[in-house]
Amino acid sequence: RKLTLEEAFLLDTLRCRFKFLREGQALTQKEVSQQIDVSLEDYLDYEAGDRLPDVMTILHLAAFYDVSVDYILGQTENMQRYPLS
Asked: Rounded to an integer, what distance in angstroms lies between the CA atom of residue 80 and that of residue 66?
């Protein structure tokens, strides 16, 4: 099936954010995949923009990098996580 414009945009956003965050921490793709408990193959697909991660993976990555889910999804440029009330 052909991707919608929104799906293609999201894939590209995630690809860029995952790579930016990983390189900012000087981590390898293998190290990140191990930290968030996904296979290296799956993580490579996410960072290449070939596949959308599931919600739990996005939540794990946000927690791992200590950034907001909104930042990962490209909804804001503010990386800061929202404080828990």
From this structure: 8
Q: Name the pTM for this structure.
A: 0.88
pLDDT tens profile 11-25: 999 999 999 999 999
What tokens were used for 37?
């408990």
Distances (CA, A) of 68 to 1, 2, 78, 81, 84: 30, 29, 8, 4, 12
| Structural contact between residues 71 and 79, judged by C-beta atoms closer than 8 angstroms | yes
Amino acid at 53: P
For residues 22 and 32, the answer to whether their CB atoms sit within 8 Å is: yes
Main-chain dihedrals φ then ψ at residue 49, nearest 5 degrees: 80, 25
Question: How far, in Å, are 17, 18, 72 from residue 47 at the CA level?
Answer: 8, 6, 12
The string of pLDDT tens digits covering residues 27-72 is 999 999 999 999 999 999 999 999 999 999 999 999 999 999 999 9
| Angstrom distance (rounded) from CA 62 to CA 79 | 9
